Fold these 2 entries.
Entry 1:
Amino acid sequence: SPVQPPDLKLCTTPIDPGNGAASVNCCLPVSTTITDFKLPTNLPMRTRLSAHQVPSSYIAKYNQAYKLLRELPASDPRQYSQQANVHCAFCDAAYDVNGTQVEYQVHNSWLFFPWHRWYLYFHERILATLIKDDTFALPFWNWDAASGYTLPPIYNDSKSPLYDANRNPLHRTPAVVDLNYNFTESNSSAAALLAANNTLMYRQMVTNSKTPSLFFGQPYRQGDEANPGAGTIENLPHGTVHVWTGNPANPNDEDMGTLYSAGRDPIFHAHHSNIDRLWEVWKSLGGRRQDLTDSDYLNATFLFYDENAKLVRFGGV
Ligand code: C2O
């Protein structure tokens, strides 16, 4: 049967991130009311733009949205740290799957793509609501294209609310992203790195992911042990871009380089916006590249706080 979300009252805290990092509490606020989510039908179509190509009017809006997000009261489930905690809570053994004693984990299985799509959806709606602009959409970090191979400059300004100090200082713009990053600096030229990145993208999107289960990852059903196996993209380049961005001087490459802290960096959402885009790109490649049809996948149930700080529950990817 499909995986049931955790009971938010049953949260393990603190979590020990390991390697000497301070323990963290990322339990989400508990809510006595859970409403059934309905996808709004009255919203305008939103278009996500490349973070390297957004116009200055957009940059102003995006900065303003993040400023307001950071200024919300700490107890508000929409607040910046609470949003980061959503990722930590559902990814770092804070909860068990409801009614079981197995860890709830949205990585390394077929839940990876849909869960992160919903996480972005609510994050985006929260930002849009804060700036009262229903046309607002997150940008995407287009690290698989020649126009997007560096950390997008909008995240580099230390005075911007989009900035995060916990990033690799060697990887600031104009360093070229290494989609095969393995904690050592590549000594290839920018052109050679771009070529290697293209080869890697072709392998992960085309050669190695001819079937849905290769692309999406292994089945993960109610009662299953967590981490049955990731799909091609989740491993590379999703994971490599995470560790390339985080700071290796921190115990676990915080922020982006490890699950519990990754959501603290506003670039996380642009990174995942690109993952979300690649899901569509992959389906457009044809052949057997189609969405999964297993009902345990289609009916997996999720919990999120929405743009009005209400806890919503829904089944379906
Ligand atoms: Cu939940 Cu990019 O990881």
Note: The pocket of CU-O-CU linkage is lined by residues 87, 91, 107, 116, 238, 242, 262, 272 (CB under 6 Å).
Entry 2:
Amino acid sequence: MKRVSIFGATGSIGQNTIDLIARAPQDYQVVALTGGSNITRLAADARALGAEIAVTAHEDLRAPLMQALEGSGVEVAAGPAALLEAASRPADWIMSAIVGAAGLAPGLKAIEQGGTLALANKESLVTAGPLVLETARRHGTTLLPVDSEHSAVFQALRGEEMSAVERIVITASGGAFRDWTREQMARATPDEAAKHPNWDMGQRITIDSASMFNKALEIIETKEFFGCAPDQIEVLVHPESLVHALVGFTDGALMAHVGSSDMRHAIGYALHWPERRALPVERLDLARVGQLNFRAPDEARYPALRLAREVMAAGGLTGAVFNAAKERALDGFLDGRIGFLQMAEVVEEVLTRLSSECGLTNAALTLDTVAQTDQIARKTADTIMAERQA
Ligand code: NAD
Ligand code: MG
């Protein structure tokens, strides 16, 4: 039996992970499940899977969670410290699927155990890539990517040497506003941005897909995870979302990963790795699909892509600034403080202000410096948004 824990169990990735585990209950012993405010979901899954412990990130939801799990034998805990404690409980396989920078600390704690960490929380690599990789190396932990593009690259690279890789191409659907003009995008509402043409994902990543901030994070994630140079990474708009990534080798060959837009591909690959096992995903009928389309991304429409390149060039704590400013700007868009296109403007302004103020590039990367930088970037984003409203 594989001992598994799922951080962010109530979210989109968490629920897809539970779907796979619940199909073969005899193979898994569930250690910890964690969630946020959806206590009902968390309690139901913890009961059904017989989890050892259920943790909500919110202290004030401890009592309702205890009530929901009364008589189940499932231990209950709440708050950030409880998340860390749950991450330090022995498990063979841990899914890191909390959304945002909040996933970094529990993810690092889980890495210290030395098992396998399935990494959906791309923000960990964007904010603290070298720290995450170094911690994994020190503890002999296997990191497996759970992003459709990065799982695709990982699979295309199997059995290959990185020295034979010329380029890595990650695809982008183009999100909800693929065919909208800048004028239309300027007036877009959160509801419109949260409708993805191909993927069913959490609200935040779906809006990040429409602004291409998700792809911006993924470019950085690619650089960190695979250790390639920024100019080896390309983004290709592919409206069908069936080719997830391509790896180009020195002999000119391109290896593409093709599959339905279902995150259970990437999750299942990480769950069973190094084996490949049957998964309950749709089999593609390419004759019926008929056409696959590709086009270059328009960087003028999507400044997030340019910003990602600037962040990689600067390095150090710049990724933590970028991610935190992006998270805050997204909050600002969601609560109506700024428009859709202003998210990139706010992020760029935060990067400009902070890069001249503090030595982001040379500072040591630790959990503390990343957390401090994250806080400063959030405050700066709030200040900029308030100035714009005034
Ligand atoms: P989601 O919003 O659906 O779920 C997020 C989970 O994190 C929930 O369980 C929520 O309760 C928990 N959470 C939120 N804030 C928290 C906090 N402050 N502390 C502790 N827990 C908190 O998000 P998602 O779409 O499942 O995405 C999860 C991660 O996976 C993100 O990093 C995202 O970029 C990445 N990812 C998602 C997909 C996808 O298809 N959804 C694809 C690739 C990568
Ligand atoms: Mg992705």
Note: The mean pLDDT is 97.
